[in-house]
Automatic annotation (TrEMBL):
<feature type="binding site">
    <location>
        <begin position="18"/>
        <end position="19"/>
    </location>
    <ligand>
        <name>NAD(+)</name>
    </ligand>
</feature>
<dbReference type="Pfam" id="PF13561">
    <property type="entry name" value="adh_short_C2"/>
</dbReference>
<keyword id="KW-0520">NAD</keyword>
<keyword id="KW-0443">Lipid metabolism</keyword>
<feature type="binding site">
    <location>
        <position position="12"/>
    </location>
    <ligand>
        <name>NAD(+)</name>
    </ligand>
</feature>
<dbReference type="InterPro" id="IPR036291">
    <property type="entry name" value="NAD(P)-bd_dom_sf"/>
</dbReference>
<feature type="binding site">
    <location>
        <position position="102"/>
    </location>
    <ligand>
        <name>substrate</name>
    </ligand>
</feature>
<feature type="binding site">
    <location>
        <begin position="198"/>
        <end position="202"/>
    </location>
    <ligand>
        <name>NAD(+)</name>
    </ligand>
</feature>
<feature type="binding site">
    <location>
        <position position="169"/>
    </location>
    <ligand>
        <name>NAD(+)</name>
    </ligand>
</feature>
<keyword id="KW-0275">Fatty acid biosynthesis</keyword>
<dbReference type="GO" id="GO:0004318">
    <property type="term" value="F:enoyl-[acyl-carrier-protein] reductase (NADH) activity"/>
</dbReference>
<keyword id="KW-0444">Lipid biosynthesis</keyword>
<keyword id="KW-0276">Fatty acid metabolism</keyword>
<protein>
    <recommendedName>
        <fullName>Enoyl-[acyl-carrier-protein] reductase [NADH]</fullName>
        <ecNumber>1.3.1.9</ecNumber>
    </recommendedName>
</protein>
<comment type="similarity">
    <text>Belongs to the short-chain dehydrogenases/reductases (SDR) family. FabI subfamily.</text>
</comment>
<keyword id="KW-0560">Oxidoreductase</keyword>
<dbReference type="GO" id="GO:0006633">
    <property type="term" value="P:fatty acid biosynthetic process"/>
</dbReference>
């Protein structure tokens, strides 16, 4: 029960495939209490599908303490989420930021053709929101608390097809290092988990389906990573087990990032 007595906020559950849900489940099953946000439903959706998709997951969990809407592009939404969290939890011990978005048109274009509006949108949602949420969380973070965000190898190296999102992930990883330094002063750790390709809504939009075979062939472990493996490492980064780790980009990709050649795939190319 690594998370017994711990409370925190999970940002970025859209459905049961979301990486944030894999991490949250692990935390709740280890005794942690979680608050959740969902994307606000459109006024013309009487079925409130965004909320329903998440509440179907959280309702059965006693340790899922609240579910409130947040569009991370809106400062007032971020403010009210952290005010609500302070009211419900007082202080918190962990914050998961698992949010990214780029317009499909921009993702399918070559990076060099990214539109100015698409670039701003992708950077705002996928990078700035980490800074904004970390800042809003500051007054309610307990000493020893941890923040984690989600990144991908396309931020370190060129992964054709990942395009503007790769530029965003490079910026996000830089943000992690600056936040780790600044928030270390209040004994708060900031890290990123760099996951291999996983089938999710955002993953599909970013071309994950085309990467799964490649990762399986090239990664030292010879397989793709599972939701559960990413969930366990995310929980580790948000727990006291990683109390000496900050400013880190931790790869959960079967070792793919460590390769400097196509490895076993070479045998097939010969
Ligand atoms: N799936 C993969 O292969 C993979 C690999 C490495 C990193 N990641 C990263 O993991 C994170 C989570 O993605 P996922 O794969 O679980 O997909 P997902 O679609 O389940 O999660 C993305 C989340 O971002 C949220 N979001 C988008 N715009 C938002 C806004 N304006 N305000 C609030 N929330 C907003 C969505 O509601 C959704 O919950 C992303 O940062 C993604 O880049 C994914």
């Amino acid at each position: 029960m690594q998370f017994a007595g711990k409370k925190g906020l999970i940002l970025g559950v859209a459905n049961d495939h979301s990486i944030a849900w894999a991490i949250a489940k692990r935390i709740m099953e280890s005794g942690g209490e979680c608050g959740f946000t969902h994307l606000p439903d459109r006024a013309d959706d009487p079925r409130k599908r965004s909320r329903r998709r998440v509440s179907q997951l959280t309702d059965p969990y006693e340790n899922a303490k609240f579910l409130i809407p947040m569009d991370a592009q809106k400062d007032e939404d971020i403010r009210s989420v952290f005010e609500y969290t302070a009211k419900e939890f007082g202080k918190i011990d962990f914050l998961l930021h698992s949010i990214a978005f780029a317009d499909r048109d921009d993702l399918s274009r070559e990076t060099v053709e990214t539109s100015r509006a698409g670039f701003k949108l992708a950077m705002d949602i996928s990078v700035y929101t980490l800074l904004a949420c970390a800042n809003a969380a500051r007054p309610i973070l307990n000493p020893g608390a941890a923040i984690a965000t989600m990144t991908f190898f396309g931020g370190e190296r060129c992964v054709p097809g990942y395009n503007v999102m790769g530029v965003c992930k490079a910026a996000l990883e830089a943000a992690v290092r600056y936040l780790a330094f600044e928030m270390g002063a209040q004994d708060v750790r900031v890290n990123a988990l760099s996951a291999g390709p996983i089938r999710t809504l955002a993953g599909r939009a970013a071309g994950v389906d085309g990467m799964l075979d490649l990762y399986k062939e090239v990664a030292p472990l010879g397989k793709n990573v599972s939701h559960d493996e990413v969930g366990a490492t995310g929980a580790f980064l948000l727990s006291d087990l990683s109390s000496g780790v900050s400013g880190e980009i931790l790869h959960v990709d079967g070792g793919y990032h460590a390769m400097g050649s196509p490895g076993r795939l070479l045998n097939r190319l010969r």
